[in-house]
Amino acid sequence: MSGRVLVVDDELQILRALKVILRDAGYEPVAVATAEEALDAAATRPPDAAIVDLVLPDGDGIEVCKQLRAWSEMPILVLSAIGEEEQKVRALEAGADDYVTKPFGARELVARLAAALRRAGRTADEPTIAVDGLELDLARRVVRREGEEVHLTPIEYDLLRVLARNRGRLMTHRALLTEVWGPAYGEDIRTLRTHIANLRHKIEPAGRPRFIRTDPGVGYRFAG
Fold it and tell me: Which residues form the OmpR/PhoB-type domain (predicted)?
């Protein structure tokens, strides 16, 4: 895995660490300290991915995410301090693909970046998604587990389809509710949790979440 990665953070120590981590992993880091520099660098020579801190001296990472996402499908990871749950959600809704919490481990960061780049390289119109014995035939709206058809309600199927087509990416509660139910249901988290529980009961091994992972207070992601 290789490519140019835009890194945006105003903490010099973290910026240096990120440059070393990315170079050791085979990437070409482009390091900047402000939102303005980030947008200029991205426009001058578009990177393959971006890692953006949420707190910047001339703005915030959320606005950077919005502006990058307005013209690019590049993977965007946000860096977030512990306890900034609402900021994480806002960043994901602004177009970020994932977040890494400070302090972060080098291996986790590289793994999340590599996964985001892999997802970006997949075709969006694949007719079938198969992961560890679970198969979604998107053209026929059929789900099978270990070769046996699983009967899902329309809502359960739509939830699984959205999660699977964004597999590996954290989907916020609001994003799932809006896409499956519509904008008017964006705050109905209790309904979402009920349907996720029912869906898990049908597709997961008993008591062992394999496909649908929970990010507490933020949303869900489909592992694969």
Answer: 126-224
